[in-house]
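quick one, 290 residues, struct below
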Amino acid sequence: MNTITGHTGFMGLLGSPVAHSISPLMHNEAFQILGLNYVYLCFDVNEETLGTAVKGLKACGIRGFNLTMPDKNKIIEFLDELSPEARLIGAVNTVLNENGKLIGYNTDGYGFMQALREEGYDVNGKEVTVMGIGGASMAICAQAALDGATDLNIFGRPSSRYWKRACTFCENLQQQTGCRVNLFDNEDHYSLKKSLENSSILINATSVGMIPDTDNSIIKDTSLFYPDLTVADVIYEPRETRLLKEAKAAGCKTVNGMYMLLYQGAKAFKIWTGKDMPVSVIKEKFFSGK
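---
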């Protein structure tokens, strides 16, 4: 690791929990390979403490930071500017501190779609089912529509504080892309069944199944799985969630969230440093056991 000096800049990850994240490993390795005098750290920050944390990090001169659950939506309150994709999505996972001005971006959708392409999957011309209406879901749905998905069927909880925002998002996304976008209640089993019958991919964009909630799955009825369905999860710890285990047992092709993390991180790295992350090296060192 590079020697930390009085000139060392810093970046980081804000969210809760964050102790499991491998983002510090890949960013710090990239800094060292490229000879950049930065360090990347994790900060366990929830929505209640986010404002105070951002104010303090900005005062300390942080160059940029990532956001993970549950902070991707709340962070918008504390930013000065949003990129076009972040404005459409309504969530931010990457912030750049440009001389005191905080600019929000969203690289999640790009990272997820790049990961799917690497697994030989393309959403162009396909119907897609997405579980969740949080920041990760909105990013993935926006990118899927931009990449040519014909239909997006999104499932969430009407009791969620994000439901109203999700309704507006679906309307805007359909108007701007031409993709047919539908929003359903998680408990609408009939609609979920029909959606999966017509979809070529199911994406879990929620935290259900993530450590320490590993006994749960967003899909309770495993009879909904069938061999021609691809099942993808944004979660990467554990690397095989209960959802993926049960889908694989039903003959589905499965994709975890590891490469999404890699490619969204690479795009964030470019935003902060102006340089390309050495993706092939990072992938071999930290992602080869996916």
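The radius of gyration is 19 Å.
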